[in-house]
Design a protein that fits this description.
Helix content is 7%, strand content 51%. It has 1 helix and 4 strands.
């Protein structure tokens, strides 16, 4: 996808947090990330079941790389 940084991973958990749903994802390389979606009907319907594989996309313009901490 042009202009996107894409990551594949597996949903490992989810936590309802009032107006958002926190989703835990294990990336293909073993790293873990957390994302949030609105806890409304559209947001909840867009999230696959636990253990399913998903692809996440971040706009290149909205992505900042940080160096590893020494």
């Amino acid at each position: 996808r042009d202009g996107m940084n894409c990551f594949s991973g597996r949903i490992t958990g989810r936590v309802f947090q009032g107006d958002t749903l926190r989703i835990e994802v294990e990336l293909a390389g073993g790293d873990a990330i957390t994302l949030r979606v609105p806890a409304n009907s559209a947001g909840l319907q867009s999230v696959p079941a636990d253990s399913e594989t998903i692809t996440l996309g971040l706009s290149v313009a909205d992505t900042t790389l940080l160096p590893d901490e020494a």
